[in-house]
Amino acid sequence: MSLGNQIAANLPFLRRYARALTGSQASGDAFVREMLEAVLADEDLKASLAGGRVPLYRAFGKVWASASGSAAAGTAASEHEAGAQARLGAITPPARQALLLTTLEDFTTSEAAAILDRTPAEIEALVAEAIADIERGQTTSVLIIEDEPLIAMQLEDLVTGLGHTVSGTAATRTQARAAVAEAMPGLVLADIQLADGSSGLDAVDDILSVGAMPVIFITAYPERLLTGDRPEPTYLVTKPFQEATVRAAISQALFFGSTRPL
Question: pLDDT per residue over 160-173, tens digit each?
Answer without folding.
Answer: 998 899 999 999 99
